[in-house]
Amino acid sequence: MAPTRRPNDGLLARVNFPLYAVEMLTSRHVLVAGGGGSSKTGVANGFEIYEIYHNGSRFVAEEVIRHETGPSVVMNFAVKNDGRRSFIVAGQEAHCQLYYVNPRVVSMTDGEEAGEKKTTGRTVRLSENGIRRRHNSVNNPSGVEEVKANGVAGDHNDVNANLKRIEFDIKPGDSIQTDFLTNEPIQRVVRISPDGKLMATGGTDGYIRIWSFPKMGKSSEIEAHSKELDDIDFSPDSKHLVSIAKDGQGIVWDVKSQQKLFQLSWNPPDGAKYLFKRCRYAVSEGKQNKSRLFTISNPLGKVGKQRGYLQQWNCEDGRLINCVGIDESLSSMTVRDDGRFIAVGTMFTGSVSIYIAFSLQRVLHIPNAHSMFVTGLVFLPITNQEGPPISSSSEAAVLSISVDNRVCIHSLQYRHTLPAWVAIVLIIVILFLAFMLCSYLGI
């Protein structure tokens, strides 16, 4: 049985708008996005950036910056770093909006900083235009975090530390229309290729459009599906692209020729009709030149806690390799950057589970992590090149978001296994004792 949540895992932050998308901006900064839409409900639309660190006993998140996007809700986005700055491409109705994210190191002296203002019980930092930068936390009641010169969170008790931290300036760039359905066009998904040269978008008109990046000049268009797309993803080598849609098809494409390579096909139980919900490529663990493909599927037209499936596919021919059933419909999926773990979120109970990628064995289950369906998941990275990963006692940690406005974290503790030599010794001892017992009984 998979272990359940650690008592001190759970809520990291609460945002005052529904959340639909989440990605890691750097190795220790997470970006979440969403909003209330264009209706005049008073619910904002935009992004929030949080810095995450481990204080020795638990994960803590500190707000860094909030950027509002006016009347346009952010339903999906992708992030790419070029070493100097980050790019965000965000789906806002039928358009894809480019944002430039420029990091800057801010120094503090004796607790003072330009633009800092004192309020009751906390310190709030403001940029030149008055944007709120950082909240206080339970573990940091002053609201001031000490960060070493490289931007990594330092010891809060080290009064001699050089006080520096990373902040971000978000500036909008070009906006392009990516979906052209006659009635209410909407971009449903956007991905940036791992090599950073291409961007792919999909929406309600069923087309995949591939754009150059970061200039976002259209290079090709694929009439991929008869109904709206639900998800797309690039392979780790940027040569292939997988797409799934509400027409029930999962198709792998050659990016260069835009030709269909093969279609994902399986025989669902009891002849039921299933639709793919999410798709993700992952590197094969320890084999950077090979990849694996994962999907989640839900039954069509069924209401209630119907059985969903997590699936692994052969990337050469689209053959189903492994498949595990899950006791309710699934809403989201992510794969860790080293390809070792998969996390899935559920539709009805808001639960989160972590699986071993190669075997699809569940190793952690967090029931009712959210009060509503899980809209997004992302693992804390371990191979990120934009900075050192967050140090903790966890083997893996995944962030989850939902339309319940909450950002949560769930960590898998290191699993204790016996060394091979200990197992061999135990087997020998057990055999010896069995032999002695048999001799004593005269068997």
Automatic annotation (TrEMBL):
It comes from Hermetia illucens (Black soldier fly). The chain crosses the membrane at residues 341-358, 420-442. WD repeats lie at residues 190-212, 222-263. This is Prolactin regulatory element-binding protein. PANTHER family: PROLACTIN REGULATORY ELEMENT BINDING PROTEIN, PROLACTIN REGULATORY ELEMENT-BINDING PROTEIN. It is a single-pass membrane protein. Keywords: Endoplasmic reticulum, ER-Golgi transport, Membrane, Protein transport, Repeat, Transmembrane, Transmembrane helix, Transport, WD repeat. It holds the Pfam family WD40. GO terms for molecular function: guanyl-nucleotide exchange factor activity. One of its GO terms (biological process) is endoplasmic reticulum to Golgi vesicle-mediated transport. It is found in: Endoplasmic reticulum membrane. The lineage of its organism: Eukaryota, Metazoa, Ecdysozoa, Arthropoda, Hexapoda. One of its GO terms (cellular component) is endoplasmic reticulum membrane. InterPro entries: Sec12-like, WD40/YVTN_repeat-like_dom_sf, WD40_repeat_dom_sf, WD40_rpt.
